[in-house]
Design brief:
This protein has no helices and 32 strands. The chain is mainly β. The strands form seven sheets. The protein has a six-stranded antiparallel beta sheet, with no helix packed on it. The chain has a five-stranded antiparallel beta sheet with strand order 1-13-12-11-10, with no helix packed on it. The chain has a five-stranded mixed beta sheet with strand order 3-5-32-31-30, with no helix packed on it. Strand 8 (about 110-115) and strand 9 (about 120-125) form a beta hairpin. The termini are far apart.
Amino acid sequence: MHAVANTATVPAARSVRPSEMVIPTVDTGMPRRRLASLPTTFVDPELTQLRAMGARTDETEGELRDEYTEGNIRLQNIIEGDLESGVVMCLRFSSDGSLLAAGFSNGLIKIYSAEECQCLHALCCDDRMSVTSIRFCPSLHAQTPEKGHLLLATYASGHVRVWHYTSGTCLVSIDELRQKKDTSSSAFNVTGDKFVTVGADPQIFVYDSETRKRTNVLEATDCTDKMDGHRFRVYAVQFHPNDPNVFVSGGWDNTVQFWDVRERHAFRRLYGPHICGDALDIDPNYFHILTGSWHTDTPLQIWDFGTGEKIKDVPQDQMFGSLLYCAQWVGRESIACGGSLRNMAKLIDRGTLKTIGHLVNLPKGVYAMDNDHRDPQPVISAAASNKIYLLKQVD
């Protein structure tokens, strides 16, 4: 018998006033752009007294150096949060690219204007556990302002919360009652009427977006020799761009599982990716799956959604390879990824599979990335420590 989620409507949240591995300097032949060339560095003025919790810090301490870019990528701006807010654990642009939400390791969520890099809204809750994922709720059926401006957030405490971010009100808080706590990620389907959550245990929960009630629990069979579901922690989930019932998930068991929300068990799987963050994406043009793995041997791979067969491995850079926490498609022509070991974010040409730009010498590993999906050259956000870097490809 599965535990039933504890769903409660909570009062409005109180308002909040809106070291590490060094990368050796290597001559890559790419043009280098120092941060000194930036017109402005935006510093977040908000100060909070919240205690940082849940941050993953697996890099070693060392001398800090300035970040810089190489190749066909330009660093437009930096949003620097106060150290009391902790590490940036997740990022998400709104559907129109005008807003950028950041979740911190102390449970704080800040929503910025993507153009001016100003903090517009700040959301916090009492448990102060790390924010693990953020999704702007689709507003396809929003008839009133109260039904729009909604944000879905998951937390290391095992909670899922729906925020009305313009008023700072938490509308619903769901304790998922996972055996190991820690809800890791979430995703909405293309029609916006369903969302799923994944976490520290192998079960996947399906919810109705309107009622916020759990409608199904997806999991593997009890027979351990049949891999029709996950066996360990799940870190990433992504719905098919066109099918509202089908999605994929990945995590620590070195599989990507294919699911239908109407069926209890996975109907297909592929083997290999060891996913430890938001490193699973589906291209809406060709329906290719991109996976990023936390290992050094071919961490970036491309797969066919229809068959589950691998299309190709993206060659690992000899000088600038990383253990990947995040990876995603950027438009029709590029791939963005970031990670640790060598704390960096990079942009890869989809046709040649060659790296065309880096952001390097970051203070910590890159745990979060997103792009605004604006053609032809989307803005890419990448987070390391308490900083958010806004990047754009240049010719």
